[in-house]
Amino acid sequence: MERKSHGWTLVDGMTMDLGGPRTAAFFDKCETLIPWDQLAKSVADLYPNSKRGAGRPHWPIPMMLKCLMIQKWYGLSDPQLEEMLRDRLSFRRFVGLGLQEDTPDETTFVVFRRRLREAGHDQTLFHKTFKHLEKQGFILSEGTLVDASIVESPRGRKREDGSHTRDQEASYTRKRDRTYHGFKAHIATDGQGLIKDYRFTTAKVHDSQCMDELIQKEKKAVYADSAYMDEKRKTRLQKRGVYCGIIERRVRGQEELPHSRQLINRYCAMVRAVVEHPFAWMHQMGRRRARYRGLRRNAFDFAMLAMAYNWKRSFSLMPYGR
């Protein structure tokens, strides 16, 4: 059974115009352009007994999805999200909470995420978002850009009994003479930086190991840095009629690349640079480091972050004045 809102009161009406104009404008876009009811409907099986009135009333799914997106857009922890919902009028209005209504607590967010994760609905929500943006004409079909980024996890310390506190599902890798411990996010974007697909693995998985899955549906062009270059992959792409825009390196014994290849590499580097934009935004939101323990929890967190990024990125791609 779903909780029912008490509706807007006189106090809510009197405070309607309060709050920062930039935040209000952003939330107006979110309210208008994101199909919250469709997203909620796609994960409605989270509460199978809600129509029969069994159990405690749950918070409305659209409200909880809005809370989840706020958390990603503003880089908030669960306690911070609860605090902001109690403190900021614009946040309360956006999720649909009146001033005199109760506020979801941090445990509520933990339980909601767990339900989504256990049902595999991180994939459901991400792909529902992608399909909506594709239908609206935001996704370019001119090629796929691929990249990967390390998500570091604490290395922990050794206990007196010989065990270790580090995340046992994370792994080590080495990059540019530095050792990392954690996970790795692999993404495929279109030419505007919208994430089309992703994979989330432990750090030891090489960047190129997920590439073939990420580009299997591409029919026009693939762009990536030199870590992905493989002659067999290049041949397979060419046989499919797909342009191979993977940057090539010098081979052993070769002093330098031909000038024509250098020019092609320069062009490919300019095109593929867009794929770094999602990671730049995520790092700005504090996602250089893993927030949770375990591969599955962090994979779910990344999926929600990618979904939040896609919605926010789509706003900046709209024609002026829309």
What does this 3D model show about the protein?
The chain has 322 residues and is an alpha/beta fold. The chain folds into 2 domains: 110 residues, no CATH class; 153 residues, Nucleotidyltransferase, domain 5. The chain contains 13 helices and 6 strands. Strands 1, 2, 3, 4, 5 and 6 form a 6-stranded mixed sheet that branches. A hairpin with a 2-residue loop joins strand 2 and strand 3.
Topology:
Layout: H1 10-14, H2 21-33, H3 36-42, H4 61-73, H5 78-87, H6 89-95, H7 106-118, H8 121-135, E1 144-152, E2 171-175, E3 178-189, E4 195-202, H9 211-214, E5 221-224, H10 231-239, E6 243-246, H11 259-272, H12 276-284, H13 295-316
Parallel strand pairs: 1-5, 5-6
Antiparallel strand pairs: 1-3, 2-3, 3-4
Helix pairs in contact: 3-4, 4-13, 5-7, 8-13
Short description:
The protein folds into two domains: 10-119, no CATH class; 140-292, Nucleotidyltransferase, domain 5. It is 44% helix and 13% strand. It has helices at 10-14, 21-33, 36-42, 61-73, 78-87, 89-95, 106-118, 121-135, 211-214, 231-239, 259-272, 276-284, 295-316, and strands at residues 144-152, 171-175, 178-189, 195-202, 221-224, 243-246.
What's the SSE pattern?
HHHHHHHHEEEEHEHEHHH
Q: Outline, from the CA principal axes?
A: globular
By DSSP (H or I, 4+ residues per run), the number of helices equals 13
Rg calc:
22 Å
What's the main sheet like? 6 strands, mixed
Please write the CATH class name of the largest domain.
Answer: Alpha Beta
What are the salient characteristics of this protein?
six-stranded mixed sheet; 2 domains; Nucleotidyltransferase, domain 5; alpha/beta; 322 residues
